[in-house]
Design a protein that fits this description.
single chain, about 475 residues, alpha/beta, 8-stranded parallel sheet, 23 helices, about 45% helix, about 10% strand, elongated
Length: about 475
């Protein structure tokens, strides 16, 4: 691999070979920072030559992984503008796989009305084909039903009809050579009028090559109840096998689970992938899933994934002492190496810094001094709060620095990078243990999927 040399232990691309492919969702704010001069200046001041250092899709990334999801819902859809403001996505390594979501989530949450969504179909599809290797077709999620924010969507049938309107256009107008496009299975339950099985029956024709030729959708994704309930997904997969809509002959070699990447589910999807590879005699058949938590929570909740004595877990970004000495004064002006309180404070802050960084790849690249400059704090408010706590003999609020501080853009970028790496370690590390303990289920799954009574046989298998 060209670019910066990295420790082989920080190359995580091999994880996808035998396990389900986990696609971290990259938040638009993170991508937009990749071309902002003030962010690049802040990163250089912190010791990083460019944004590429904190982009695992880059030749210069300090850890390597080769899969990501990027949603059209919050993205710039004008391709030339997108290339200017999102260079980290467009200039990724050749070995990477980018999946693009179409923006259905924005319809479900009321950001887009169904009519707007449909009118944007050409722009969305053109953008998906230009930026990504795999595109999720333009579904209207059943999660819209009952959501007061969703505009003009009241029923399962409305979601289905609106989805089919979008699919009709995409299947006729897409460029199959530009990107693989995945059909979408939704539903509120497994069976019945609002079930995933009914939805599948209604939309499976969009994968029919005898009708659409090469323009037919060439793979599947699961949303709604079908994504949340593994047993339901398995029943739909069994139907796909019966209908001849999985396998390399039809080029339907991909199943993606939207918005789910908990360790137990990752393990279940891995077992399903191994069973399907056996049933289809296709070692290239892929099951994948995605999750937004690693990047989204840094900006919205100021939380990130970090490792510690009990493994990788979520931690707060701004509630630690290393951002501000306990006395509230500037160390550059007031530090006294002969003062016991200064020595103790400095030691505690260094220790907390080491705990915060853990074993992430940035631990060897970010100095303590640079780290303390990643947040902007209201020194007056913090000093007043500390003084009040001292005067009233109260415990200092552990959220003090979270309440009165915000990450600088470069701080957001670095914490996101740490969170992405640790999330991947957690997802793959924990799921691998579960897979090892349940490896015998692969044979049972394969047999049940091939049986004449798959529903009853699959129901006997307990995954997660």
């Amino acid at each position: 691999v060209m670019g910066v040399e990295i420790d082989p232990s920080l190359d995580y691309r091999h994880w996808r070979k035998d396990h389900v492919s986990v696609f971290p969702a990259i938040h638009s704010s993170f991508v937009n920072y990749s071309a902002r001069p003030e962010v690049l200046a802040g990163l250089r001041e912190a010791g990083f030559a460019s944004f590429d250092a904190v982009n695992y899709l880059s030749e210069e990334g300090l850890f390597r992984y080769d899969a990501a999801l990027f949603s059209g819902g919050g993205a710039e859809l004008d391709i030339q503008k997108s290339k200017a403001i999102n260079p980290s996505i467009w200039n990724r390594r050749a070995d990477t796989v980018l999946m693009s979501d179409s923006g259905g989530f924005q319809v479900a949450t009321g950001i887009l009305a169904p009519k707007q969504y449909y009118e944007m179909r050409e722009k969305i599809t053109t953008w998906q084909e230009a930026i990504s290797d795999i595109a999720i077709a333009m579904d209207v999620p059943t999660g819209s039903i009952g959501n007061r924010k969703a505009i003009c969507i009241d029923s399962f049938d409305e979601c289905l009809t609106l989805t089919k309107d979008n699919f009709d256009w995409q299947v006729q107008n897409r460029n199959p050579k530009a990107a693989r496009m995945l059909n979408v299975v939704q539903g509120l339950r497994a069976e019945g009028h609002e079930g995933a099985l009914r939805w599948y029956d209604e939309i499976k024709g969009y994968c029919d090559r005898s009708k659409w030729g090469d323009n037919a959708f060439d793979g599947w994704s699961f949303g709604g109840f079908a994504a949340q309930n593994t047993a339901t997904a398995l029943r739909v997969i069994a139907r796909m096998l019966q209908d001849g809509l999985l396998g390399k002959d039809g080029n339907h070699r991909w199943i993606h689970i939207l918005g789910v990447a908990a360790e137990k589910r990752v393990a279940s999807f891995t077992l399903i992938q191994r069973a399907l590879r056996r049933v289809l005699d296709d070692d290239g058949f892929t099951v994948s899933c995605d999750a937004s938590s690693a990047g989204l929570m840094v900006g919205t909740k100021q939380m990130y994934y970090a490792d510690g004595p009990e493994g990788v877990a979520q931690r707060k970004v701004l509630n630690a002492r290393w951002f501000q000495p306990s006395c509230g004064r500037d160390c550059d002006e007031h530090f006294d190496p002969n003062a016991k309180e200064c020595v103790v404070c400095a030691f505690d802050r260094q220790l907390d810094f080491m705990r915060a960084m853990g074993t992430c790849c940035l631990a060897e690249h970010l100095s303590f001094e640079a780290y303390t400059n990643l947040a902007t704090l209201s020194e007056t408010k913090i000093r007043d709060a500390l003084k009040e706590a001292e005067e009233k003999d109260l415990e200092v609020d552990p959220n003090l620095y979270h309440l009165y501080g915000t990450l600088k853009p470069e701080g957001y970028a670095l914490f996101t990078f740490i969170s992405q790496e640790m999330f991947l370690r957690k997802a793959y590390g924990q799921s691998a243990k579960i897979v090892e303990a349940k490896a015998d289920l692969v044979d049972k799954l394969a047999a049940a999927l091939k049986s004449e009574t798959p529903d009853s046989d699959l129901a006997k298998i307990k995954l997660a």
